[in-house]
Amino acid sequence: MTDDRGNSGVEGSDPARPQLIDRLRPYTRKPDVVTLLVGLAIGLAVCGPLMGGGRVFFLDWSIGAHFPVVSVGSLGLDGGLTSGVAASYIVAVLNPILGGSVTWIPILLFFPIAVVGAGRLAGGSNWTRVSAGLFYAVNPFVFSRLFVGHIPLLIGYALLPFATIATITSVASRFRRWPVPSLWWAGLTALSPHFAWIFGLIILGVFLFALWKRGVQRRRAACWFGLSVGLFALMSTYILLPHGSTSLPTQVGRVSLDLYRTSGDPHLGLFINVLALYGFWRMGPGPELPKDVISGWPFLMVAILLVIGAGVWLAVRRGTHRPELLAENSSSENGRLKSGVVQFQSRQGKVHESLALSEYKPYLALLLIFIGFVGFFLALGDQGPTGWLFLWAYDHVTFFALMREPQKFVMLLALSYAVFFGWGVGHLAQLKLSFSRIRNLAMVTVVGVALPLGYSANIFDGLSGQIAPSSVPVSYQQADRLMGMGAGTVLYVPWHLYMSYPFTNNRVVANIGASEFRRTVISGDNVESGDVESQSTSPRSTYLQQLFSDGPHLREFGALVAPLGVQYVVLAKTVDWVSYSWLGNQDDLTMILNTSSLEVWRNDDYAGVGWRATKLTPVSGVGGLVILSKIDGLAGRALITKGTVANSLNPDPQHSTQEATGSPPSSPSVIELSPVAYRISSGTSSWVTVDVPYQRGWSLDGRAATESAEGTLLIHVGPRGGELQFTPWSLVRLGYILSTSTFLVLLGIVLCGGQVDRRRRASAGEKSKFRGK
Q1: Dihedral, CA of residue 238, residue 242, residue 244 and residue 249, to nearest 10
Q2: CB of 82 within 8 A of CB of 70?
Q3: More reliable by pLDDT, 516 or 668
Q4: pTM over 0.90, yes/no
Q5: Average pLDDT, the chain
Q6: Residues spanned by the domain of 301
Q7: Is 98 or 213 the better-scoring residue by pLDDT?
Q8: Is 706 helix (H, G, I), strand (E, B) or coil?
Q9: Could you give the strand order of the β-sheet that contains 706-707, starting from the edge strand earlier in sequence?
Q10: Does 739 map to a domain?
Q11: What distance in Å separates the CA atoms of residue 95 and residue 103, rounded to the nearest whole number?
């Protein structure tokens, strides 16, 4: 027998307990405190090696010293893709404050958020919450995404359980709580656009559950679902509006689907690989996955699946004794269902509140089975029995093409696994399999803690040393000070989207050039994966790659890149930098810095952001342009590729070839007002080139700009001049206004409504105390 404090009733059999344990006991009864401490411990164990200084560069996430606050993507200049603006802006604001710490602090925060969130969704005892949180935060999906640096996606993944709880409780709450799922939906999508579909499936599952369960009217559930979708669409106008007004920066056809296809295990195949939470398409370079270092990983997976299966069985088959969910009912006789929150009524008639359906396992289990089942088959992409359906959606459903890498759907399966795993471990903790408490505790610890951690054992210590901080050479700072600030751009080579650096221990990371200098940087956008060299649709990139291939035969490279606004050329001494040795043979490039890490040249032919052209000359591609530069020079010319048709409102290019003025105007022709607007001064009617990469949407007085032979903007301007504008910016700006204002208004409604509910509950509590007296 034991008393309320757990002390043995046998006199003298219970030794004095340590005072520290007695002090900590009140905190261990708060489940979120326990899971928070566990999550922090896991985060420190993973991020410990990253805290030594420097910056952590990843394969898809490089944050340099000068990460731009206002990016081209935020203005809609990156093909109208504005979905990642929120995460980018937060990082840019914190970058000068936190320095290199901004690259690893989000990783450290991920683990406690994920552990607490999954634990709260699972509910139950500390064992249930901790084991669910551990499996959710430490698994092969998290390992792979952490290695490549999908940090915003992982933060959204960590917040997913909280969003799921809020969605479940919203459907049976008062009307003013209905916007909560939309707020979460919009917030997660702002971190990563993939949550538009991933979290959308959870909302769909809750809607189907609400239609099926007792106590909620179908009309009410339909209104809740329709409002959630409508409010989300309104808060996503900054993404939706500019989508059709410009051209995408990358290809999204079948080539993309083939490139990012979910991979199978070489021995166990595709289905087992996805069930094991693997399947990330990027197989190299790196990483060394947990299954690469754990020879018996399939046995660990089977053990985990057995615990998960036990959790499913216990929740569905033996969970009917749980209290029954009751919806909000304003006509209830006792009036206790008017609080606007999810409430439960036990068989003894006691009504109590719950913030999650974890208190009612059968229904939550069905919801998790649904999202896990759907997440598994969607993660297969265009493979497997549902591949035809995924392929149809990819080709015909608007915005579904952003799920070209379908393995991201595995996070739904991971969420389902985590909760069921926690329930299985929680039940095991209640069993007395041995007369020894120590043996029981050891068994539960092995299953609930050691098993999930062992399944992804090499995630600790910076993924077993596979990611580490790097110190960028001081020569980058020297080059930045030397080049200073200005309108002229920096061409950063070698031309690769991903490459290794000596200071990253030759680990392949995303090109760091774009965020290491204060000036605008032109850097490689070629994916170079498998048989795919590049997916870029930028004509400027195509032009540059053709110049690089012909580089050894050039002598006026500066003149050829001057129309792109290139004032400086920076060559990083890494990978194939020796193949760019021809830069030293150019007549119009002057070297201004040469270190062991990089070389910097100044372009002597740089003439500003744009100029008026004395004539419009058709050329036969880059080859004809290079020949023209050698024979007749490029000064004062605007070049257009033969066969290119100028806008019908512009003069005929062939006719303009015959027109020539004596010399270019002496005054500056083009002034940059902002990245989306350029003032062209008055002068003679002529063609004007601007060093902006061509994309659909640029116009002047209703006349659309034409693509020049170099891939920049070309526009015919009358004697009065005018303002060249990127017209999709007005839609982007309107989208920001609508999205932000809607989000803030809904957030205010929810917060105010929550305050009102708390006051009502406090008032009701005081009245009940008074009646008791």
Answers
A1: -110
A2: no
A3: 516
A4: no
A5: 83
A6: 31-245+267-329+337-465
A7: 98
A8: strand
A9: 610-613, 686-693, 712-717, 706-707
A10: no
A11: 9
